[in-house]
Amino acid sequence: MAPLLTALWVAPLAGSALVVAVPASRPLAAKYTALGVSTVVLAIVGVLLIRFDPSDPQYQFVEKHSWIRSFGASYLVGLDGVAMVLVVLTAVLMPLLLLAGWNDVQRPGESAVYLALMLVVESMMLIALVALDVLLFFAFFEAMLIPMYFLIGRYGGEGAPRAALKFLLYSLFGGLFMFVALIGLNLIAKTFDFRAITATVSAGQLTANPVVMHLLFVGFLLAFAVKAPLWPLHTWLPGLAAEATPATAVLMMAVVDKIGTFGMLRYCLQLFPGSATLFRPFVIALAVIGIGYGALVAIGQSDVIRVIAYTSISHFGFIVLGIFAMTSQGQSGAALYMVNHGLSTAALFLIAGFLVSRRGTRLIADYGGVQQVAPVLAGTFLVAGMASLALPGLAPFVSEFLVLIGTFTRYPMVAVCAATALVLSAIYILWLYQRMMTGPVADGNHRVCDLLPRELAVVVPLLAMLIALGVYPKPALDVINPSIEHLAEHHVTNAG
Questions:
Q1: Within 326-394, where are the H helices?
Q2: Which Gene Ontology BP terms does the record give (predicted)?
C-alpha cells in the first residue's frame, strides 16, 4: 500500500520549501505555488476519503517504522473516523485561506515566507491528527507553535507581537504539564504506542497508583484545554484574533485549536478512562461556564473581530461539553461540531476581515448601512452569522442539537443551562448585523465595495458546505459514528 499518510503531511512541508525557493521578485509565482501545493494535499485527502471504510472503527492506512527504539517510540500513523473528518476540514480550508490571505502581506520578499509558514502549520496539524504514537503526536503538537508564533507576531497588527508571545507562553505552559505526564505514562506503559497502551488499559494490565493516573490525566487535559481553549484558559484568543491577519486567525480558530478538543476525545478519554469519569463534573462545569461567558462577553464587545473570537469560546464550550457528557450522541455531536465550527467561523471571520480591510476599522460603531453599498457582502455575512447561532438548516444546528440531546440524557439541568446560550447567540449575531449592515449608510462607508471574485471564491464554498451539512449531515456522521461507538465501548468497559 502506498504511504498515503506520509505523503499527506510531507507534501505541504516540501511545498513550503518550494514556495520559499521562488525568487522574491516573483511574489505571484509564490502564491500560485502555495495554492497548487494545498490543492495537491486536498487531492491526497480525496484519495484517502474514497478508500476509507466508514464501517470499520479501527485505524486505517497504518504505517509503522522504528524511531527511538530505546524509548519504545516509533513513527506510527493511522486514521479513524474522527481524525478523518478533521483531516478533510484542514485540507479543505487551506486553499481557501491562502486565497483569502492573497494580499495580506505586501512587503517585498515577505509574501513567500508567510505562505510557507501557512503550509508548515498545515503539515504539522495533519501529522498530529494521524499520529498513533503519543510522543510523535506531542512533538508536532508543540512544534506547530513555532510557525504560528511567527505568523501572528510578524505579520499581524501593532499589538501582534504581544498577542503572539501570550499565545506562546500559554501553550508552552500547558505543554510542559503534558510533557511531564508523557514521561510518567511511558514509565508505566513502557511504550508510546497509543494502540498498545489502550489495549493494556482494556485488559486491565496498566497497573499504577490511581492518584498517579489522575495526575497524568490532568497533565494531558491542561495542554488540551489551553489549545482548545477552555475557560478560564482562553484569554490569549481574543487578542490574537484581533491582531493577526484574518487568514492566520482563522487558521488558529478553525483548524489548529481543534487539536485541543481532538486530544481530549482521543487521549484523555481513552488513556485515562477512570480519571476522565472522576473529573467529568469539573470539566463539564468549566464547559458550561465557557458557553455562557463567551456569549455574554460577545454581546458587550465594540470590536467586530472580538465578537467573533468570543463566540468561538462559547462554541468550544459546546464541543467540550459533548465530549465529557460521555454519551455516543454527545460525542458524535462534538466531533461534527469541530468540523461545523471550523466552517462557520471561517466564513464569518473572513467576511468580517474583508469588510475591515475595506473600511480600515474594527469598531462596530463605525459601520452602518453596508447592505446598501455591498449587498452580497452583507448577505453572506448574514448567512454565516445564522450558521454561528445554529439556525436549523445550517450545519452547526445538527452538531449543537446532538450535543444537547446527548447531554440531556445524562445531565438534564446542564443541557438546559447550555441551551440558554442559543438565546444569547441570537442576540449578539442579530444585533451585530443590525448595527453594521442595516440603517442609513454611515460616514466613510459609501466607498465600501462588494465582494470581489477572489473573495467570492473563498466565501461561496464555505456557505455551500454549511448548507449541505445542515441539510444532509449523514455522510459526515457515517464516518464519525463507528469511531465514537468504539471509543464509548472502550470507555464504558474501563472507566470503572
A1: 328-359, 370-373, 375-388
A2: ATP synthesis coupled electron transport; electron transport coupled proton transport
Residues 6+ apart with CB under 8 A from 104: 114, 155, 245, 246, 247, 248
Distance CA 168, CA 151 (A): 12
Point out the residues of the chain with pLDDT beneath 70. Answer: 1-2, 490-496
- Distance of alpha carbon 344 from alpha carbon 386, whole angstroms: 9
Helices (H) and strands (E) in the chain, counts: 22, 2
Q: How confident is the model at residue 468, as a pLDDT?
A: 94
> Distance (Å, rounded) from C-alpha 44 to C-alpha 94?
14
Per-residue model confidence (pLDDT) at position 109: 74
Domain housing 34: 4-494
Count CB neighbours of 268 within 10 A: 24
Report pLDDT for 233. 83
Give the torsion sign (CA, 336, 338, 339, 345): positive
| Alpha carbon separation from 53 to 87, 288, 393 (Å, rounded) | 15, 35, 28
Question: What distance in Å separates the CA atoms of residue 479 and residue 321, rounded to the nearest whole number?
Answer: 21
- The candidate with the shortest Cα–Cα distance to 181, out of 154, 141, 130, is 141
C-alpha 263/C-alpha 369 separation (Å) is 43
Cell numbers that stand for 110 in this block: 515577505
Report helix, strand or coil for 73: strand
Total number of domains in the chain: 1
- Chain centre to alpha carbon of residue 63: 25
Q: Which of 224, 211, 212, 215 is nearest to 188 (CA)?
A: 212
Q: How far is CA 409 from CA 79, 329, 403, 412, in A?
A: 30, 9, 10, 6
